Amino acid sequence: MQEQTDDIAAIQLVLQGKQAAYATLVDRYQPYVFTLAMRYVNNREVAEELAQDVFVKAYRFLADFKGNSKFSTWLYTIVNTTCLSYLRKKSNGTVLLEEEKIIGISDHQFAVKPVDILEQKTTKQMLDSAIKLLSEDDARLLTLFYQAEQSVDEVGAIMGLTAINVKVRLFRARAKLKEILERKYSREINTKTI
Amino acid sequence: MEQEMEMQLWEYIDGICNETEAQRIALLIKEEVAWAEKYTELIAFNAELAGSLELEQPSMRFTKNVMEAVAVSHIAPATKKYINPFIIRGIAAFFILIIAAVFGYAIASSGNTGKTGSLLSGLKYPNLGISDLFSGTFVKVFVMVNIVLALMLADGVLRRKRQTG
Predict the structure, then answer these.
(1) Residue B16: strand, helix, or coil
(2) pLDDT tens for residues A61-115?
(3) Could you tell me which chain B residue has the CA closest to the CA of A172?
(4) Structural domains of chain A ordered from first start
């Protein structure tokens, strides 16, 4: 709630012409926007460009933010549309999205570290690796719900889904994540009791 | 059965079920061992997810890059400010008026059969020759032109798709 009030105050300052106040919002939301963009493109350089584009777009249309929702929800909706439009443009290129996803997964599987290194993996790293093996939609959903702390309704508004749809997808995504963790990291799970 | 239980427990953990449902699930957790065990397992997993997922960090220059890009752009005026609601209402009123006029004319024409007692029988309407306009030949030519235009459009779309693909 405090964060929301701070956001509104910063937005008011920006709209009054104090451009520097926008840096506060950029600083606050850049890891969320960047992480979400990464969930779409899985490439740091592209994700950074997209995240930058999102913040510039948000700035240009800041007067349209009426405060009916949280600033973060409005911002993540821009992330969603910007990344989807990038992927749509890219799908006209030579590599199909599905192919890229397969390449990404197999790359990751080949890059699995030896067991002795895996044993040293922290829970954070295990979860991060497991989430990358989920479908893009599931990864985005979990990121929005857990990392960006958006409610089921807000996730629905961002992704253009109904609350019931979000609920079902969230359930499936968690089940899949749990399954991946159990399958790939059973030894670590036993020791760390996830 | 287990999946149903898990789904209900997740709704309870996420706080998205109604109060009655929440009370019912709370009671089940208290009284049923299977529910209690599953709840403990899910709540631990939820805590891991909420606390352990790491956020990715962009480069150190990120904010600076954004602020540089922002410095050369301007805040667009709010959409409501440059879209005059009177224009929107004016367009809507124009279409409603046209539809009402056509509808009124159609009713009046059909009721103007010379029968006595009709409310509209005393009125005189201009003959717009609409029935001539929609004669068999006219409709055929119209449909044919539309088919040709649709084929040209489909051809253009397919050609563009082939070029980009």
Answers:
(1) coil
(2) 998 888 888 999 999 999 999 999 999 888 765 444 444 443 343 334 334 443 4
(3) B7
(4) 1-93 (1.10.1740.10), 96-194 (1.10.10.10)
